[in-house]
Amino acid sequence: MAQLKVTLIHSVAHRLPKQRKIVEAMGLHRVNSTVVQPDNEATRGALFQIAHLIKVEEVK
């Protein structure tokens, strides 16, 4: 299964509470923090909602 490398590039300060919860649930804490998540429907849906805050790369 493919993996996605997710990097937080914008702060979650002054964002909607739902967006803050998604960022926290993904394991991202500070700007430039990075996590690797599985590439599945649930992850893609969450990433879509915070797409303006993150950078996503595919990991082989």
UniProtKB/TrEMBL annotation:
Entry keyword Secreted: no
GO cellular component terms, semicolon-separated: ribosome
Domain Large ribosomal subunit protein uL30-like ferredoxin-like fold: 4-54
Origin superkingdom: Bacteria
Keyword terms of this UniProt record: Ribonucleoprotein, Ribosomal protein
SUPFAM superfamilies given in the database record: Ribosomal protein L30p/L7e
Similarity comment text for this entry: Belongs to the universal ribosomal protein uL30 family.
HAMAP family per UniProt: Ribosomal_uL30_B (MF_01371_B)
Subunit structure: Part of the 50S ribosomal subunit.
Protein name according to UniProt: Large ribosomal subunit protein uL30
UniProt source species: Levilactobacillus fujinensis
Lineage: Bacteria, Bacillati, Bacillota, Bacilli, Lactobacillales
